[in-house]
Amino acid sequence: MKVAVISSAMAEGARIAVEIEKVSGVEAWILVFKSRNMNPWMRLAREVYRFITTRSFFSAMRMAVRGRIRYFVKAIDDPASIAKIKTFNFDLGVHSLNVIYRRPVIAAFGCGILNSHIGLLPGYRGRCVAEWSLLEGNPVGITVFFIDEGVDTGPEIILQEKLSVAQFDSIAPMKAFLFGEDARMYSKAIGAIRAGHSRLPNCLSEGRRYYPMSKLFLNVVEELLQSSDRASVRKT
Amino acid sequence: MVLPEPGDWWESTLELEDFLLTAASDGSFTLLQGQPAKFAAPTHIGKKTAANALETLKMRYRCPMNIVRPAESPIFEEALRYLMVVDRAERVDGLCDQLRWILLNLVALRCRVAPDIRGLDVLNVFWERQLKPWPQTMLAWSLLGSYDAALGSFA
Predict the structure, then answer these.
(1) Scanning every residue of chain B, which has its alpha carbon at the shortest distance from the alpha carbon of A151?
(2) Distance (Å) from the alpha carbon of A149 to chain B's nearest alpha carbon
(3) What distances in angstroms separate CA A142 from CA A96, A156, B64, one per listed residue?
(4) Contact indicator for B49, B32 with CB cutoff of 8 Å
C-alpha cells in the first residue's frame, strides 16, 4: 500500500511517515506543500526548528535517500499539483497540512485522505473540540476518519480512542499531547484498513460543529484542568 | 416570557430593532399568532451574499422571537458559522456590521429560550472583541441586554 503523508514541513511528514511504515506492506512517502505565503528563509527556519523539536532529521534523511520526498512549489489544490500527485498512484493520503481539501485533491488519492481529529466524532466537529469536551464533562479522544470537503463531516470513521488527559494541568500541553498522537493513530488506522476492519458511520445529526472558544471559557477549562476535583477529566 | 405554541409563526406589532430593544430591556412584548414567513432563511451566508442575507433576515425575522422555534435550527447554525468563521476572518464594512449585530441578537434571543453553550460562547467572543470597548449602536445595546438574559438562562 502506497501512502502519502501530506505536510507543510519535511520534519512533520517524516515523524508520521516513520510511524506508518511500521505497518507491514506500507510504503510511505512525504509530499511537502506550502500551506500559506511564507518566505523561503522563514520556511527553512521552521524546518530546522521542527527537526530539532520532532527529532526527525535522520528519518527525513532516510526518506530522502530513498527518493520518497517530493516538494511542491504550488498549493495542493493547484491543477498542476493534482496532476503530479496522480502520477504517483497513491492508495491513501494522510493529512498533516493546515487546509480544507477540495474534491479533486481527495480524488487524487485512491481510497481518500485520512484525518486524525482531536475529538470524538460524531459528537465533536470543528475547532477546540478537546476544550469543549472537557467543558461539557465528556471524554477527550482522537478519531481517524476519511475526510470530505466539509469540516469533520467525512462519512467513515476508521477508529477512535478515548485518552486520559488527567496528567495535564493546562490546555497547551494537553493539546500538544493530543496532536502528537496523530502518527500512532494513523499507523493503527492504516493497520485497520489493511485488515479490513468494519468502519463506523459519522452521523452528523448526532453531533455539533464547535468553534474557537472565548477567553472566558478557556479560563474555565484551564481551571477545570487545575482543580483538585477533576471528575470530568478523570472520566476519560 | 410566555410564548405561543411552538408550531405557530409569530408576529409582533413592533419592528425588528424596536422588538430587540424591548426584549432586551424588560421583555414586555406581545406575540401574536401569524402566518408562516414568506421569506426563506438564507442557507449560506458569505461576504458576497451579505446584502441579500441581511434583507432576508430582516423580513423573515420581523418578529425575531421566531428564531427560537425548533425548525429554525439551521439558521441558528448558519449564524454561528458566519459569526465565528466568516466575520472573524474577514475585514468587515458597514453592511456586514449590521448583519453581524442582527445575527448576534438572534443568537442571544434563541439562547434565552433554548440554551446552547456554543451560542452563549459566540456572545462571549463578541463581548471580548467588540462590546467591551463600549457599543455604539442601538442594536448593540439590545444585544447587551439579551446577552445578559442568555447568561441568566445558564445560571
Answers:
(1) B81
(2) 16
(3) 15, 14, 39
(4) no
ipTM for the whole complex: 0.84
Minimum-distance CB partner of B121 among A208, A209, A214? A214
Q: Measure CB to CB from residue B80 to each of A135, A211, A216 and give the nearest one.
A: A211
**B33 against A195, higher pLDDT:** A195
Chain B residues 101-120 with a CB less than 8 Å from chain A: 117-118
Confidence check: pLDDT of A15 > 50: yes
Residue B137 has pLDDT above 70, yes or no: no
Residue A215 forms contact with B (CB below 8 Å): yes
CB contact under 8 A, A217 and B124: yes
> How much is the pLDDT for A236?
43
Range A154-179 average pLDDT: 95
Integer Cα distance of A74 and B134 in angstroms: 45
Best A211, A215, A224 member to test B by mutation, with max B CBs in 10 Å, is A211
Q: Tell me the Cα Rg of chain B.
A: 14
Task: Return the sign of the alpha-carbon dihedral for residues B98, B99, B103, B104.
Answer: negative
pTM, entire model: 0.87
Full 3-state SS string of B79-140: HHHHHHHHHHHCCCCHHHHHHHHHHHHHHHHHHHHCCCHHHHHHHHHHHHHHHCCCCCCHHH
Question: Is the backbone of residue A93 left (phi > 0), alpha (psi -120 to 50) or beta?
Answer: beta
Burial zone of A100 (CB within 10 Å; 0-12 exposed, 13-18 middle, 19+ buried): exposed
Q: Would you call A212 helix, strand, or coil by DSSP?
A: coil
Cα(B117)–Cα(B115) distance, rounded to whole angstroms? 6
N-to-C CA span, chain A? 34
d(CA A54, CA A60): 11
pLDDT of B21: 82
Task: Look at residue B101 in the predicted model and tell me its pLDDT.
Answer: 84
Do the strands A113-117 and A141-146 form a parallel or antiparallel pair, or are they unpaired? Answer: antiparallel
User: CB within 8 A of B108, min separation 6: which ones?
Assistant: B119, B123, B143, B146, B147, B149, B150
Q: CA A158, CA B21: separation in Å to the nearest integer?
A: 50
B85 and A211 in contact by Cβ < 8 A?
A: yes
